Amino acid sequence: MKIKTMLLGIFSTLLISASAMAISTEITVHVKTKDAKFLGTSMGGALITVKDAQTGELLAKGVTVGSTGNTSLIMKTAPSRGTPISDASAAKFTASIDIDSPRLIEVTAYGPLVNLQSANKASATQWVVPGKHITAGDAWMIELPGFVVDVLAPPAHISLTGAIQSINIRANVTMM
User: What CATH number does domain 22-145 carry, 1.10.3470, 3.30.70, 2.40.50, 2.60.40?
Assistant: First the structure.
């Protein structure tokens, strides 16, 4: 009788813990620059962090990789609701997180990683349900505003002191 009760207790514990097991859920993140293309490998990508928005627990971290996307699809075709603008080559970061209940997830994008002087940050939150992957279409899209500015002149090592009446400034400015 004692063994039956003990076995029943073990079985119940296993059954309860099995029902609360985490389910692997995939999330794909694209970082689209405002009024431009995807932030991909050519710009060093964007650092992506995936966190539980309520607890701050880090669930995944990585960098977007891939191309800036299909120019015609992104910039020349009139967008219509529900039609993806990302193709298979478009830069992305995909993570697999293990969750056992719906969680409010925050995804943050920081970049471009090659031009840190121009880096910007954007984030978004949404509820994620275990086993309901966010990978179809444009998946989870974050828009990152800004410009990449490379100062060409004067060089960084020049000290500007005294009564300066004029200075030549040259820069390469590109939409993020």
Answer: 2.60.40
